[in-house]
Write a structure and sequence with these properties.
The complex is a heterodimer of chains A (158) and B (500). Chain A has 158 residues and is α+β, with helices and mostly antiparallel strands. Chain A contains five helices and eight strands; from the N terminus they run βααββαββαββαβ. Chain A folds into two domains: 82 residues, 2-Layer Sandwich (Alpha-Beta Plaits), CATH 3.30.70; 59 residues, Alpha-Beta Plaits, CATH 3.30.70. In chain A, the strands form four sheets. A two-stranded antiparallel ribbon of chain A has the order 1-8. A two-stranded antiparallel ribbon of chain A has the order 2-3. The model of chain A has no long low-confidence stretch (mean pLDDT 92). Chain B is globular. The chains are: A alpha+beta (158), B alpha/beta (500). At the A-B interface, α1 and α2 of A face α1 of B.
C-alpha cells in the first residue's frame, strides 16, 4: 500500500504538514483561514514534526501490516481496513483508554481531548489522492509511495 | 552603552484577518524577526532584524504578510540620500568597513536595455524554430587559424573544446560561500541541460566527483582545494584573477563557515578563515600568468581548456589581449554588476565597468589584432534573461555565465545578506538547519528549467532574425541597434543607432 514517508534530510521544520493536516480534518477543507478562525476547538494535527537541532522529520502512522494498536484496542474502535490497508479509529466506539498510544511503537497516535477523549491518528486523508501533508510540504520532504525512499529492512511499516 | 542611531529598513505588515497563528514565519526566520508572544497569544515581529528576504512571505500559507520599505523619511536633500546617511551612522558606530552581498545595485545605466534586436521582414524569411532545426550548440576553446582537410576528413588537430548545449554556464560560486545543496543543485542542472557549473575557489566536494564532465574547476589566489585529482576531475580549469563584484580585492571566508566538509574540501583546518589574497602572489605580469596557464596545461596533459577570469576594468581590452597571448583558451570577463558572497560595499558599487562595454571593447580589440580565434569569450555579471544573452552573443560573446540568476532559480530573493551566513533560502549558508531548506532535487529542476526556458527563447529570437545557428549571430553587431545612447557609447559598442 501507499504510505507517507519522510525524508528527514529535507524536512525544514516549518510544520506546514501539521497545519494542512488540521485543514484536512476540519469542516472547511479548502479554506485555511476559516478552518483556523471559525473552529476554535480544533483537534490536534495527526502528523507531528519531531525536532532536535538540525534534525527534524514529520511522524505519522505507519499503517502497519500487523498493527499493535488494532490488536490492543479494547473496544474494536481501532481497525485496519482490509481493502485499503489504512488503519483508522472509529471515533464513536473509541473510549479514550489510550491503550493504543501505549502500544504504538512509533508514538504516532495522538491524544485528542478537544471534545470527547479519543485517540487520533493519520487516516491518509480518507479517499484523497495524495494526503494534504504531502501535497503541501514545501520542500519535498514527504512522499506518498508504495516503497520507502531509502533502503530498509523494516517491512510493512513495522 | 550609547544609543544606536539605527532605524528599521523594512516594515512588516501582518493582516490579522488572514493570520492563523500557525507560526511558520516564526520557525522560518533565521534572523529571529517573528516571535510568538505567550502573554498576548499572538505573533509579534521585530522590524529591526528584517532583511526582506521574503522567506516568511512565501511560506505563509494564508499570505498574511507583506514587507515593504520602512516609510521613515529624512528631510529631503538632493545630495544626501537615506543610504548615505545611514551608512555614516553605521560606520560612526562600528568603525568598520561596510559589507554587502550580491552585485552592484546602484541605478547605473543598463546597456542591455539600450540595445534592440533585429527581425526579418519580407526581404529575408524569418524561421520558426518549432518547424525547422535551430543550432545553438557552442564550443569553447582556442580555434585554429586554418583547417586542413584530407580525404574529406579533418586533419588539423583541434585544441581541447568544451561542448555546451546552451550558451549559458553557471558561474563560479564556491562551496563555502554557498551550501553543498546549492552546489549539488547546479551540478545536476548542468548535467541535465548539457552545460557546466564552476566550483569557484572552494574545491570540489567528494559527493560531486562524478560531475566532472559538467564541471569547471577554479584555481584562484588562495589555491584552496587544488590538487591533481581536482584538476583531473574538471572538464576545464579556470584561473581566477578577478571578480566583477570586487575587482582588485581578494576573498575571505570566515572561520565560522569552515565546518568539517568545507575544511576537507578546501584542505584547510576546520574553523580557520579562508583568505584568498587580492593578487596571485606568483603572478605579477602576463609572462607570470603564462607560466601558470602552462603549468596547469602541463599538469593535465594539454587535454583541458584553460580559462582566465578577470573583472571588467578600465583597460580591459589590452589586458584581454595579453591573456590571449599568454595562452588562455577562454577569457571570462565579469562585469561590475557581478555578484559575490561578500564585498566591501564601496568596492562593489563603484569599481569596475559595465560588461556591455567591456565585451564590445575586448571583442573589437582581439579582432583588430587578428587573435580573436585564439580565445573564446565568456561574459558574466548582469545577465538577467535570454534577450540579454542574445545581445551579448551579437556583441561578440561565445557564451555567458550566470550566477545571480542561477541562485534566484534556487530561491534567492536578493536580500544581499549572503555574508551573514543566515540565508533563509539555504543557499549562502553552512548552517545545517538552513542548508536542508534547499532540496537539490527541487533546486536542480528549477535551475534546469530556467536554462531550458531560455534555450527556447533564444531560438525564438534567432528565428525572428532569420538566423538558424547561434554561430551566425556571434559578433554580428548589425543585428543590434542602440537607443538613447551617445555617439561615443555607440562607437564603443560598435553598433548603429536605431533608425540607421
Amino acid at each position: 500500500m501507499k504510505r507517507v514517508y519522510a525524508k528527514e534530510e529535507y524536512c525544514i521544520g516549518c510544520r506546514l504538514c501539521e497545519i494542512y493536516c488540521i485543514l484536512s480534518h476540519s469542516e472547511y477543507k479548502n479554506d485555511l483561514i476559516k478552518a483556523f478562525k471559525k473552529s476554535l476547538q480544533r483537534p490536534p494535527a495527526r502528523i507531528q514534526v519531531e525536532e532536535e537541532g538540525a534534525l527534524s522529520f514529520a511522524l505519522q502512522c505507519r499503517h502497519c501490516d500487523e498493527a499493535y494498536c488494532v490488536k490492543s484496542c479494547i473496544t474494536g474502535a481501532m481497525q485496519k481496513d482490509p481493502e485499503t490497508g489504512v488503519v483508522f479509529n472509529e471515533k464513536e466506539r473509541c473510549v479514550g483508554c489510550w491503550t493504543c498510544i501505549a502500544a504504538c511503537p512509533y508514538g504516532a497516535i495522538i491524544k485528542d481531548e478537544t471534545s470527547k477523549k479519543i485517540a487520533s491518528k493519520c487516516d491518509l486523508c480518507g479517499q484523497n489522492e495524495t494526503p494534504y501533508c504531502v501535497q503541501n510540504c514545501p520542500n519535498g520532504a514527504l512522499i506518498f509511495s508504495e516503497e520507502p525512499p531509502y533502503k530498509t529492512s523494516v517491512k510493512g511499516g513495522e | 552603552m550609547a544609543l544606536s542611531y539605527a532605524v528599521p529598513n523594512f516594515l512588516i505588515e501582518r493582516d490579522e484577518s488572514r493570520c492563523i497563528d500557525c507560526q511558520v514565519c516564526v520557525r522560518q526566520c533565521a534572523n529571529e524577526v517573528h516571535k510568538f508572544d505567550e502573554d498576548d497569544e499572538k505573533i509579534v515581529s521585530d522590524t529591526m532584524k528584517c532583511v526582506n528576504c521574503h522567506r516568511c512571505v512565501v511560506l505563509c500559507p494564508t499570505k498574511a504578510l507583506t514587507v515593504r520599505e520602512f516609510p521613515l523619511e529624512f528631510k529631503k536633500n538632493g545630495h544626501w540620500k537615506s543610504d548615505d546617511i545611514k551608512s555614516i551612522y553605521i560606520q560612526a558606530e562600528t568603525g568598520g568597513v561596510l559589507l554587502a552581498g550580491m552585485g552592484n545595485d546602484k541605478p547605473y545605466p543598463i546597456y542591455w536595455d539600450k540595445m534592440l534586436i533585429n527581425a526579418s521582414q519580407v526581404t529575408n524569411p524569418s524561421i520558426d524554430p518549432l518547424r525547422e532545426p535551430m543550432e545553438i550548440k557552442t564550443f569553447l576553446g582556442r580555434k585554429p587559424a586554418s583547417l586542413e582537410i584530407e580525404n574529406g576528413k579533418l586533419k588539423t588537430k583541434l585544441p581541447p573544446q568544451l561542448e555546451l548545449e546552451v550558451p549559458v554556464m553557471f558561474s563560479a560560486m564556491s562551496f563555502g560561500s554557498i551550501s553543498l545543496n546549492a552546489h549539488k543543485s547546479l551540478a545536476r542542472a548542468a548535467r541535465e541541460v548539457g552545460t557546466f557549473f564552476n566550483t569557484g575557489e572552494g574545491g570540489l566536494h567528494r559527493d560531486l566527483a562524478d560531475f566532472g564532465d559538467n564541471c569547471i574547476v577554479q584555481v584562484a589566489s588562495g589555491r584552496f582545494g587544488v590538487h591533481q585529482e581536482y584538476l583531473d576531475a574538471g572538464s576545464a580549469i579556470e584561473i581566477k584573477i578577478g571578480q566583477g563584484a570586487k575587482p582588485g580585492i581578494g576573498g575571505h571566508l570566515p572561520g565560522e563557515k569552515v565546518g568539517s566538509e568545507v575544511s576537507q574540501t578546501r584542505m584547510i583546518p576546520e574553523g580557520s578563515d579562508a583568505i584568498s589574497p587580492a593578487p596571485h602572489h606568483d603572478i605579477y605580469s602576463i609572462e607570470d600568468l603564462r607560466q601558470l596557464i602552462y603549468s596547469l596545461k602541463e599538469a593535465t596533459n594539454y587535454k583541458k581548456p584553460v580559462f582566465v577570469k578577470i573583472a571588467a576594468v578600465h583597460n580591459v581590452a589590452a589586458i584581454a589581449s595579453g591573456i590571449a597571448r599568454a595562452g588562455a583558451d577562454v577569457i571570462a570577463i565579469d562585469g561590475f554588476r557581478g555578484g559575490t558572497g561578500a564585498a566591501p560595499l564601496r568596492t562593489r558599487d563603484s569599481v569596475g565597468i559595465p560588461i556591455e562595454f567591456a565585451l564590445a571593447a575586448v571583442d573589437t580589440r582581439l579582432r583588430q589584432e587578428g587573435i580573436r580565434n585564439q580565445v573564446s569569450l565568456v561574459i558574466g555579471g548582469s545577465i538577467r534573461n535570454s534577450s540579454d544573452i542574445v545581445k551579448a552573443v551579437a556583441l561578440g560573446a561565445d557564451a555567458v555565465y550566470i550566477g545571480t540568476a542561477a541562485l534566484m532559480a534556487l530561491g534567492c530573493h536578493l536580500c544581499q545578506k549572503c555574508y551573514t551566513g543566515k540565508c533563509n533560502w539555504g543557499i549562502a549558508t553552512q548552517d545545517p538547519r538552513l542548508v536542508k531548506r534547499l532540496n537539490p532535487e527541487i533546486g536542480a529542476r528549477r535551475a534546469a528549467n530556467l536554462l531550458k526556458a531560455w534555450k527556447h527563447e533564444i531560438k525564438e529570437l534567432l528565428g525572428g532574425m532569420g538566423i538558424n545557428a547561434l554561430e551566425s549571430l556571434r559578433g554580428n553587431r548589425l543585428m543590434l541597434r542602440g537607443i538613447d545612447l551617445t555617439e561615443k557609447e555607440l562607437e564603443i559598442l560598435g553598433i548603429k543607432a536605431a533608425g540607421e
